[in-house]
Amino acid sequence: MIEKKEYEGVFIFDHPLIQHKLALMRDKNTSTKEFRELVSEVSMLMAYEVTRDIPLRPVDVETPIGIAHCHMIDGKKLALVPILRAGLGMVDGMINLIPMAKVGHIGLYRKPKTFKPVEYYCKLPDDIENRDVILLDPMLATGGSAAAAVDFLKKRNIEHIKFVCLVAAPEGIEHFHGVHPDIPIFCAALDDCLDDHAYIVPGLGDAGDRLFGTK
Does 206 participate in catalysis according to the annotation? Predict the structure, then answer.
């Protein structure tokens, strides 16, 4: 993992497997099935680094041969919160690696003309305020939806939040950190810019449509 120096608090994954799979995702000829599988695989690989700072406690484990001095997660509670609908594509990969995490959902959509986020659904675990939250959305474009989702989480007294996406635009990072400078951003790529329709360039298209085969 490398940190993009021009953006404090933004971490870009340079692992060869992540970059290879991202290249396949970007290809316009990649099928819905393949795209969905790639998103899940990359999400699982990213989860490995995103959870690196989880505290551990020492434990002794009896093996068939003797006692091993090991470490286990120190009771840290996690929650995955995808932003609907595209964020759903990232859940399975992460839950495969951290099956003890609970899953909440936040539903947002962008108004076509203003690109402003509108909430239409929010369902979170009852103990969400006691959990470290990993917020998921494949694309950080304008940053409006991600920033609004963090607003909803902070209103519920959640203190520890990380935002994880596949591709980010500079405009999205600047808006997001302009509102929430305390929230780290983890992504697989930082692209060039947004076009007139607020799509990331070069991006990978509409992640939701490509995940679910819709247009």
Answer: yes
The structure tokens listed for 129 are 């305020």
Is 92 annotated in the active site? no
> DSSP state, 141?
S
User: Could you tell me if 214 and 36 are in contact, meaning their C-beta atoms sit under 8 angstroms apart?
Assistant: no
pLDDT tens, residue by residue, 69-125: 999 887 668 999 999 889 999 999 999 988 889 999 999 877 777 767 777 888 999
* CB-CB contact of 187 with 9 (8 Å): no
Task: Please count the other Cβ atoms lying within 10 Å of the Cβ belonging to residue 114.
Answer: 9
The DSSP symbol for 157 reads T
pLDDT, tens only, 144-165: 999 999 998 998 889 899 999 9
Task: Report yes or no: 146 and 83 within 8 Å, Cβ to Cβ.
Answer: yes
- The one catalytic residue in 52, 53, 114, 126 is 114
The pair of three-digit structure tokens given for residue 4, joined into one six-digit string = 């993009």
Say if residues 83 and 108 touch (Cβ distance below 8 Å). Answer: yes
DSSP for 59-115 reads EEEE-SSSEEEEEEE-S--EEEEEEETGGGGGHHHHHHH-TT-EE-EEEEEE-TTT-
Residue 114 bears catalytic tag: yes
